[in-house]
Structure formats: structure tokens, C-alpha cells
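Journal club prep, notes for RB
We'll compare a predicted complex against what the paper describes. Inputs for the S-adenosylmethionine case:
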Amino acid sequence: MKFETVSDEEFLKRVKKLYEEGKGNEKSGAGHVKMPYGVVETPTLPEGLEQFDAKEKYEEVDASSLNYADDNMLTTTMPMCFSTTGEYLGFPPNVDVDGQSECLITGYLKRKIALTPGIGSPLPRVEAKTHQIVDAPGQGVGMFAYRNIAAGELILAERPLLVLPSVARMIRQQPANAPELTPAQTMRIMQEDTEKLYELAVERMQPGRREAFEKLKNSHLHDGSGPIMGRMRTNGFGFEEMRDLPRNGKPGETFVIICDELSRLNHSCGPNTHRYWDMATFSVQMRAIRDIKKDEEITATYCQDMESFEKRKKNLAPYDFQCACPACIDPKTSDARRKQIHAVVMANGLGFFWEKNFEVPKKTVVKPLLDAVGLCEKEGLESTIEHGFLLFVLMKTYAAKGDVANMRVYARRYSVWRLACLGTAVDEDEVEKGFGLVTVAEMVQRMKGRMLSGGKAKKTQAK
Ligand SMILES: C[S@@+](CC[C@H](N)C(=O)[O-])C[C@H]1O[C@@H](n2cnc3c(N)ncnc32)[C@H](O)[C@@H]1O
């Protein structure tokens, strides 16, 4: 199915007032408006405003086709299999076990998903049960470790219940003589219209999966969000791979993933897991970023953990809870540690594609790097890019020093970080070789040995 929305130009004109009120976030993409939270009075709408009937606007299109305009919005069930030339091959055979996702996505994104090599591959399974979802005092329910889990281990791979657009839309048309809408009225229309769109995807869900979705927590009961939008805002998360094409010179819209079990994870600013998206299995996969003990709560982050306490607090506010993790209880200490980690990382040249730069550093002082890694561990920041970068630089620095043993220690730690954060498994042999750096380390070691013996010989001659 597809529908037509108001033009970008008109949409932007209508949300201009929201920008002026400070509720717009132009950096996040075209028409991205910050949605209200907390208790917000909903305004009445002017009379004569046409109601938005999503079903009336929709038009049936051929589900087995990939021939859509990039910006056509579609309801579609994923994963669906296509040959590399775009020929429809049906649903994968494993959907009874792995489940299917109801998606409201663009034509561009459907094509991107459908043409991914291996799309519809079965989900990876864990050998022994890793987790259970039980009461978490003061937090509703949460996920807890069923057994000890090692850093890097897969805890869960899950196919989303739903994939929905993150940006609220305004679709209904106004009569030519309609009074100008206030920002609050614009917001209310966006919330109502978007809820109607979301209903189209929810109505397609299989009964069991729909029931699971309806059981999810909704922390947006009083801010004008409908029941679907409220659950989406409480439980959804996003990944770069599920981003749309750029529009109007702004980054493309992201699509929100809502799961059953993975949406039961509570937040910590020092989480013990990391989640990443795997397109071929069309699933979210979650791994331990450090060792997790049996019965320990399994946590994820809802914000940017390296940010200061004040920024994290602001970004967590819509979730309607007060974070009581150690970093938020003692912000003075945690902010100072974050600043120190950041300073060491910047001094060592964090930049784009750092993980591809195997040039060994000229400086071979490891103390600040080791201190910063220690601070990451104290703060539970093992899943950050900063931590991965520090492990990588330490591996290269030990290679530059000719210290093969320590180079291998950090190659191993870096490979666990890569596995947990990016889902990229590293060959055991590669780790032993320090991603090729072992040759550098051994060469430096030989040179040092030669210089030492050379120095001795000279001294002997001098006698
Ligand atoms: C994605 S849900 C997590 C699962 C949820 N606890 C439940 O019962 O379904 C997010 C909601 O859980 C609660 N929550 C998450 N992390 C929390 C924390 N650290 N402390 C208190 N409540 C938390 C908040 O109500 C938040 O809006």
C-alpha cells in the first residue's frame, strides 16, 4: 500500500512555528520535531478541519515488487526474499520460529532490505538460556542474567515486532479558509495523523505478536501521544542501517525498531550490553560488553553515555524515570572521569575510520591510555567508541614498543569489543597476529636486541 503526504515544502511551513517555539530539531533531518512529554494539555482543533482517514489515503500496490518511488511509504512484512535482480522469491522458510516484522517504511528502504545478500537468514541461537524477564523493583519489569555470561557472548537475537518511522507527520489537508493553527494544534494534528499511520502497520500484525506489542510499557500517557506512538517512544530504538535517503540536504529519517524481549531492557549510563543491527537476519543482536554474573540485571543505554550528567538527564527525561546508576548518583566524579577519557582519546587522534589505521604511533607512553581504559571500566563505559579506540591504540602502542605479549592482550580485548559493539567476529589467528601488528612488534623486538648487543660490543672495544 502507499499514500501521499503533504508536500515537504508545506510540511516545513507548518512546523516552522514549532521551530520558532524551540520544539524543532533541524539537525535531525527534515521536519523532525521534538515531541512533548510529561503532562501536556491537548488543545481543541478548529472546526471544519478534515479528519485524516489513513485507510482512505492508502492504495494497494504489488507487495512482490520493488518498483516503488524512493519516498513512497509502504506497509510491508519483512523479511521477504528477492533475487539480486529483484525477482520475488517469497518469505524465508524459518519465519514460524524467527517471526516477521510489520514495517511502515519507504520504497527506498524496502529495496535496500530486500536486496541485502542472504536476507531472511535464520537467527543465530544461544546454546544455553541466557536471560529471563522478571520484576525489576521500581522499574516495572527488566531482563536478568540466567547464568554467568562472558564478555562478547551473544545474549539474544530478535526480529522486531514493528519498524516505524521516527518522524511524526502531518497529513490531513486544511480547507483554504481555515484559521492559522497554533503550534500546539499543529503538534496535536501530527500526533493524531501519525498514530493513524502507525495503526496500518499494527493492524497487520499476527495476533500473538500484536498482543506482545500491546503488553509493552507506555510511559507517554499524558502528552498527547496515542497508544502506539506512546509505546514506540518508550520502547523503540534505532540503527544507522535503517536510515532513509537524505532529503532537503538533511540526513535521512531513521526508522524505529520495537521488539518484544529487547524492549524490556532497562537503562543504565554504564550498560553491560551493546545492541547492533544485522540486516541479513533482519534482527537486533545483543552481546555482553563485559562479564555479567548470574542474576545481575542486563541493561542497555537510552542515551549517549559519554555525555555529561546534565545532558544525559535531559535526554532521559521523556522516559519518565530518574536514573539511579552510580554515574548519576555521583555526577561530579563521573563527569570528571568522562572528561579525562575524552581528553586522552582526543590527544591520540580519534577520527573517522580510525579502526582502519594500523600505522603504529610514534609516542609509546602507555600510562595515560591504561588510566583511561581503567576509568572506562570504573564507569561501565566499555561499550563506547572511546573504549574501543583506546584498546586499539594500546594494541598499536605495544607493537611499537616491541611488547608482543601485551600487544596480544589488547588485540584480544579489542576483538571482544568489536564483536560486542559491531557484531564483527575476528578470526582467532588474526587476534594472535594482532591484526598483522605482530610483525611490527617482533621487528622492533629484534632491533632492540641488536641495539643492545651492539652497544655492549662498542663498550668492550672501548676498554
Ligand atoms: C523500554 S522500557 C523498559 C522495560 C520496562 N521496565 C517495562 O516494565 O516494560 C522503558 C521504561 O522502563 C522504565 N525504566 C527503564 N530504565 C529504568 C531505570 N534505570 N530506572 C527506572 N525505570 C526505568 C521507564 O519507565 C522507561 O520509560
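Talking point for the session: The chain has two domains: 8-319, 330-452.
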